[in-house]
Amino acid sequence: MSDRRGRRGGDGGDRAPDFDDEDDPDMGDLFDELAELEDSVDSDDERERVRETMQMAMEVQDSEVFGRVVFGFDRSDAAEALLGSLLFGIPMFVEGGTTEVGEFIAGRPHYLLLTNALTITLAIGILYVADFQDVRVHNPILGVVPRKLAGVLTIPLVTAVVVMTAWGRVDWANPELAVCQISVALVPMAIGAALGDLLPG
C-alpha cells in the first residue's frame, strides 16, 4: 500500500497532515487505514467497531457510479449479479450456437479447460483489474477466495444450470456434453454478473 498519509511538520506533530495536491487522500486510502487498524486491534469488539466504521464510510460515499470503494458480497450484489447474468445469458440459452460450440469442445478437453480459464480470467479482470470501482478483498472465503469473485461466478453458474435444464437446452443423459454447453454459456454470463455487480455502484 502506498503511504499517502502525508508528512507532519517539525513541531511535534500538532499540525494536520500536509498533503500535496497529487497525493490528496481518497476513500481508498481511508479503507486502507481502516483495514490496517482492524488488523492491529486486540479484541473482537474493537474489530467489529472498525468493520462498522468501514460500512458507514461506504454508505456515505457520494452518489457517483464509478470510483467508489466496494467490498464484500451481499444480497443486493447477488441480485445485481443475477440480473446481469440473465441479461447476457438469455440470448445464449436460445441461440443454437451455444449448443454447437459445446459439442465442439466436448471432444477437446483442453478447450473446455481454456474456456473455463477464460471465464475466471474475465471475471477477475472486470472486478480487480479494469478499475471500474475500487474493489477491496475483505474476509475472503477460507482466507483465499474473494467473496465477490465467488459470487459473480457461482450465481451465473447456478442460473445457467437451472435455466438451460428447465428449457431443455442441455440433456443430462450426456453429462459431459451438458457441462461443456453450460461452460460456453457461462462465459458471457460471468461478464454480465461482474458488470451487473459493479456498474450500479
UniProtKB/TrEMBL annotation:
List where Acidic residues composition bias occurs. 19-30
Q: Which InterPro entries match?
A: DUF2391
Top-level taxon of the source organism: Archaea
**Keywords, ordered alphabetically:** Membrane, Transmembrane, Transmembrane helix
According to the record, the residues making up region (Disordered) are 1-30
Q: What is this protein called?
A: DUF2391 family protein
- Coiled-coil residues are none
Residue ranges under compositional bias (Basic and acidic residues)?
A: 1-18
The source organism is Halosimplex pelagicum
